[in-house]
Specification:
This protein has four helices and three strands, in the order H-E-H-H-H-E-E. It has 107 residues and is an alpha+beta fold. Strands 1-3-2 form a three-stranded antiparallel β-sheet, with no helix packed on it.
């Protein structure tokens, strides 16, 4: 809710409060996080400087369920892997649980 002395036009434009997901904790974005988020909004060319990715070739068949379980255990240990930015783009949300996405390609 905007402060009581906020002009009506600005108060009407203020984003509606966003409910926290169950078990999530809200923290303010750091300046560095805000910069990364703004670069993401500017498009792929601007945000690519922050991307780190790799490809992994495994010469044997993997059990996808086992890999998903390992990723879930990893995310459970490291809150950075369970952190998202809220819909109003003002805070980070550290989720109690958040399953990481796994994209598998059989080449």
């Amino acid at each position: 809710t905007p402060p009581a002395d906020t002009p009506p036009a600005l108060a009407a434009a203020a984003p509606a409060p966003v409910a926290l997901p169950a078990g999530a904790v809200r923290w303010p974005l750091s300046e560095a996080q805000r910069e990364v988020w703004l670069a993401t909004l500017a498009g792929d060319d601007a945000s690519v400087a922050y991307d780190e990715s790799f490809a992994l070739r495994v010469p044997v068949a993997l059990d996808e369920a086992t890999v998903r379980r390992a990723l879930a255990l990893l995310a459970a240990r490291h809150e950075a892997l369970r952190t998202t930015i809220d819909a109003a783009h003002e805070a980070q949300l550290v989720h109690a649980e958040l399953a990481p996405a796994l994209v598998a390609s059989d080449l």
